[in-house]
Amino acid sequence: MIKELEKAYQPQDIEKRIYKIWEKSGYFNPDKLPGKRKQIFSIAMPPPNVTGELHLGHATAITLEDIMARYHRMAGDKTLYLPGTDHAGISTQVMVERLISKSGLSKHKLGRVEFIKRVWDWKKKYGSRITEQIRQLGASCDWSREHFTMDPTLTKAVQAAFIKMFNDGLIYRGKRIVNWCPRCSSALSDLEVKHQETSSKLWYLKYPLFGSTKYLIVATTRPETMLGDTAVAVNPNDKRYKSYINTKALLPITNREVPIIADKRVDMNFGTGAVKVTPAHDHLDYEIAQDHKLEIINVIGPDNRMTKQAGEFYGQSVQDARHNILKRLEQEELLDNTVDYIHNLARCERCSAPIEPLISEQWFVRIDKLAKPAIKAVKSGKIKIIPARYEKVYFHWMNNIKDWCISRQLWWGHQIPVWYCGQQYEASKKIMGFHKDVVPQVCAGKIKTYRLRDHGFKPGDKISFESSQTGKIFGIGTITSIKRVTVGAIQLDDPAHGTTYKKRSGLIAAFKRHHPDQSINDDTKVFIYTYIFNPSAKTEGCGEIIAAVGQPKKCPKCKQTNHIRRDPDTLDTWFSSGLWTFSTLGWPEKTQDLKTYHPTTVMETGWDILFFWVARMIMMSQYFMKEVPFKYIYLHGLVLDRHGKKMSKSKGTGVDPIPMMEKYGTDAIRLSLILGTSPGQDFRLYEEKIASYRNFINKLWNVSRFILSQDAAPPKKLAINSTADQWIVSRLQQLINSTTENINHHRFSEAGLALYDFLWHELADWYIEITKTEKNISVLYYVLEYFLKLTHPLIPYVTEEIWMRWKGEARSNMLMIQPWPQADKKFIDKKIEKNFFLLKDFTVVVRNFRAKHKIPAGEKIHVYYWGPQSSLINDNSEIIKLLAKIESLNNEQQKKLTGSLPGLDYYIDWQQDNKQKDKEVEKISKYIQKLEGKLSNKEFTKKAPKQVVEQEKAKLAEQQEKLQKLL
RNA sequence: GGGUCUGUAGCUCAGUUGGUUAGAGCGUACGAUUCACAUUCGUAAGGUCAUAGGUUCAACUCCUAUCAGACCCACCA
Q1: B19 C1' – A880 CA distance, angstroms?
Q2: Is there a smaller number of Cβ atoms within 10 Å at the N or the C end of chain A?
């Protein structure tokens, strides 16, 4: 059936319909593709945040990936484009936290289990939104293989990976200084910290010298950390302080003695040249402390409050402590000076809270053994980075990489598959020995709260809860920002963060969940005996750390059964995404998919996550798979707004791809993200640009409309009749070659621009215009068919739609799986191509003449132009230009040329335009001068390749002749 | 402090390994258009390819320096 094509392309309905047809066809699944396919092409989609919205970064990535996938599918490869989404630990958790805070809730109020449930709800509700948007973009990915990083199969892979690395000694637990986000209550990796210029003050503090009346002045932006100072450091080459080295200073307020040490890392030119050393709260100070074996005093807790070690400032917020300490120093006349100062403040990448470096026990990946093979993979060329300059960046980063902190004190993520036998949570102080008297009250709906601080607990302490009835541990946790624990109002899974069950029914329900073996009804007295243990002392449990998927029944070391509990922390999101290329294919099982599609062919992503993700995938794949995860890394640039700034939602400078797709069509968006861009290079996008590509899509639509609306049915055989026919068919062959070449070399922009140019400025503007009166339908159909195939990877919707409306032919196979065109050499004729350009010029002359003299379209124009002696050749520079070219043809070609211009009996009359002529003369003279200069240069004639010299000579002769005619 | 990138027409950007008189889109000016397309067509104006040196027969392209801008990394308290 032939449907009439609408006057203008209307993408909205078409796109939805076409995508359904594609998806239903099953061809997105490589197993269902027709024909024998030996070559494999596989590409894993970088999983977007499951709860996120599609932005232009995704759109760029997906367009590029889809171009490759569609091209390779047509080129006969077994093509897998594997989609998925990421649970995105911190950012999702922060988002849900913000959301629930609107209704006055917090994650602590909800408790871990309920909070995670909320996140899953959120995921279920919005997780399909992003995949719908990916579909809208036309992504030809195999949805039957879609994965989510928290799917059971991927969780299995994450656990297997962790356990193997742990058993191999590549993962260790250690007390180190880490980046702590007080708002997220979690440690962060170095990469998740962003530095931002912040105006602050620099305070100069006087530290009295021990046994002297003199002072040493140190400069600091954080006076509150002085309570944790354990040294003052100076540069060993600093003459001012040489005599102080190895003496002692007296710390103000606390009057603690601290050594004055020498360390090269101290910058003599900054501040006073003397620096206070606070190992617990500064990365550099921590390093210095390691080398000098200094004491480490933690004065700030994970809740951003001063710890017990801070003495009289205990419990104060950092801000208050700073204020109070400065006040004290001022009173004691130990504050020397205060100046304004702008410094780079470390902030949490996700929530922007200032980072507090502190000492904490965390899990780390030992990176040196992983980095070496990962460096080698790129150095040896097994992985190629496009553009290559990023290899340098990659090597630099890999060579300086530090151990990777992978534990997060978050709830949303893969819980670390590690079990402890006691130790970390051993009981010492039963602060509320449970209190049989509390229980009835609880059951009666009364709630009693205990201030943790009153019982000697401080934030950061690990606590565990245990039922005295069953001896079972309900949970363990870290005291973070809460100040009190409400007994009997505790969510059993996570007592540390206490949820309030205001009603007895809630408590009973919780009890039932945790003690399913006990029969219970509403009248039953509920006995929940809870103990809170202080971790600092020891009792039972041997301290064994066991990495295992499920809870071990007994400790393999001490054989005890009662003290095994799980680490509450979760893993860094990037740990699970690091496994992405193989975990999505079934690893650790040895699946057929894994065998077939790994290593993947290309990884396509923005350069901004080269370190976050790409580098880690390489390390993990080298380690687990003993092979590279992908052969090419294509890094696209970031999309900027019209002023070249990063798009920002809050500033409203962003372009949202969804309404743009609806307004201009997906194909137009796809082109606007690809054309005129180059890999690794950021580019600007704005609506006008998209509109111009929409115009192109419409142009293609109308060209097709023109061709398909011809009366005749599409001929089966190609018949070439005229110069114009020869020209366009020859150009098409070259286009096939260049497009294939360009896509193979990942030059998508160039491929697209060439296609754009061909369709618009060769086919539409010239071929169709010139042959309108004598159409060659076979050529029109031939060119259109091939053009649709060539552009399909870039603009799949419009091409498929035109393909389906092909005239007079039942199309059982969709364009998506048509074989990729091969150029037919016999049609390539560069001479014809050149001749046709003359024809074009000539046509322009005629057209302009017609316009100038307002000659109606039906009227014939006569153009005299022949021969250099013609009196008509005097003035019009365009004609002169044209003649100069035409005269280089022989007579036969001239005939051919004129013969192919139907309706033109030549006559042109024109008015003198000396200005034009002068300009032309000047231009040609200048060029001649240049050529003469070149040819008279002996070096040139001697050394340049013969061909080049001949070329230049010919050019000179040509130009001289041209000039003569002009004058 | 170390590193990367960018500087080409009024604006946004292409220019593949050095080799025709440096290109496109948008914008501007003038003109065209019943017969696929006003989401159209033609023509024109507009560039010492940031600046200064160097290598080469030949440089937008390679090298060096300078200027301007963007970004990344890093332990400036």
Answers
A1: 27
A2: N
